[in-house]
Amino acid sequence: MRITVTNINFNYSNDNNNELQGVNLYFSSTGATFNINGYVEVGKDEYLAAATDMNKLADLIKSKVIENLSETTEQTAS
Fold first, then answer.
1. H helices of the chain, where?
2. What is the value of pTM for the model shown?
């Protein structure tokens, strides 16, 4: 599955120092028998660790999607 980053939104704190709190990574997928589109929320440190490499950003998105799917499955099973 190929992940394409389509947009990046930076989330800042509401106080006067405007510190980066996290990032929303918007994406679309191709190359599978299904499509996933939307965004995942990642923390500041997660984003900064992957920001210089699009492959790392795609891997980060994949891991967040898998994490979200796992949480949804666990909630459904309960």
1. 44-50, 54-77
2. 0.84
Residue 70, both tokens: 């796992």
Q: Other C-beta atoms within 10 Å of 67: how many?
A: 11
CB 36 within 8 Å of CB 29: yes
Given the structure tokens 């996933």, which residue do they identify? 36
> Reduced to 3 states, what is the DSSP secondary structure of residue 49?
helix
| CB atoms near residue 23 (< 10 Å) | 22
Q: Choose among 69, 62, 73: nearest CA to 28.
A: 62
Q: What pLDDT, in 10s, does the model give residues 24-56? A: 999 999 988 988 999 999 999 999 999 999 999
Spatial distance between the Cα atoms of 22 and 13, rounded to a whole number of angstroms: 9
- Residue 38: count other Cβ atoms within 10 Å of its Cβ: 14
CA distances from 23 to 26, 36, 71 (A): 10, 19, 20
